[in-house]
Design brief:
heterodimer, A: 151 residues, mainly alpha, B: 143 residues
């Protein structure tokens, strides 16, 4: 029960933090990717702060034998660099540059009720299904054992 | 380009890192949006309740933002709806394929010093920059 409340609070605070840093605005993302034009340092600064803070908490947490509300840590087990990782990241990057929206902001922006965000979210979910529901086509990219996705 | 707020970027990022850290400390989970959402949409295993709680909390966060600070949802980019649809398809497909997104790989994975995540971040930032370069320099900034 407590882990459900924790998940709710974390989802809520993560959405608020994305709004605070204005990463919910597509022009912020596209501005950060526009490295040869009018570069917007908002997203890189957001990332840097988030990574540093997360790194410290992560290291401190691993000193514990288990998380507070669970009996084990759920960490990704894959370490290999493969076509699936790089190919997926390339497609993701193209989508990111086109729309300036990624999954966190896409979910958060549902709360805005704006048509563009809702349509984007629906397309994103469809994209997820297309990958996940065609194991025959994507068979050679799928992991052999079921693991929890890292992100 | 909107005016850049140094303080908001640092505060927002720190709150994100703190909260993602909290989710790991309390539940032992990685705060990756595409993973949590993707696994929830395909309930292959029993652990869907916490994911639903996470997603609900995030959408409620969006509603709070819309109420208090609606300007954070301003769409000030010159993109047509079909381009947003194409972008959404690629983001969804790509995130599942690379098993992570900007939060899971880009922040949590890099924070864990994962080789895969660092490479993923570098790859999608690089391809994203190329796409933005082509649109801004070659197509006049609109698509």
């Amino acid at each position: 029960m407590k882990n459900y409340i924790a998940a709710f609070v974390c989802g809520h605070l993560l959405a608020l933090s994305l709004g605070l840093g204005e990463l919910t605005r597509p022009d912020r993302i596209i501005g950060a990717l526009d490295i040869t034009g009018r570069w917007d340092p908002t997203m890189p600064l957001f990332f840097l702060s988030a990574v540093v803070v997360y790194h410290i908490i992560y290291r401190l947490t691993l000193r514990q034998s288990a998380p507070v509300f669970d009996h084990q840590f759920h960490l990704p087990t894959r370490t290999r660099i493969d076509v699936r990782l790089i190919g997926g990241a390339m497609l993701f990057g193209v989508g990111w540059g086109l729309g300036g929206i990624c999954p966190g902001p896409a979910l958060t922006a549902l709360g805005s009720g704006q048509t563009t965000f809702i349509v984007f979210f629906a397309a994103m979910v469809l994209g997820m299904y297309i990958f996940d529901l065609y194991p025959t086509i994507m068979g050679r990219f799928r992991p052999k054992t079921q693991t929890t996705a890292p992100g | 380009m909107a005016e850049f707020s140094f303080i908001n970027a640092i505060l927002g990022g720190s709150l994100f890192g703190l909260t993602a850290g909290l989710l790991f400390w309390l539940n032992g989970r990685i705060a990756g949006f595409s993973g949590i959402l993707g696994e929830l949409l395909l309930p292959r295993h029993k652990e869907w309740i916490w994911r639903l709680m996470f997603v609900t909390g995030a959408i409620l966060g969006g509603i709070v933002l819309q109420t208090l600070k609606p300007e954070v949802f301003a769409i000030q980019v010159d993109r047509s709806l079909p381009i947003f649809i194409l972008a959404g398809l690629l983001i969804g497909f790509g995130a599942r394929m690379e098993q992570g997104c900007t939060s899971g790989h880009g922040i949590c994975g890099v924070g864990r010093v994962s080789r895969r995540s660092i490479l993923a971040l570098f790859t999608f930032a690089a391809t994203g920059s190329v796409v933005v370069f082509i649109i801004n320099k070659g197509l006049g900034g609109a698509l």
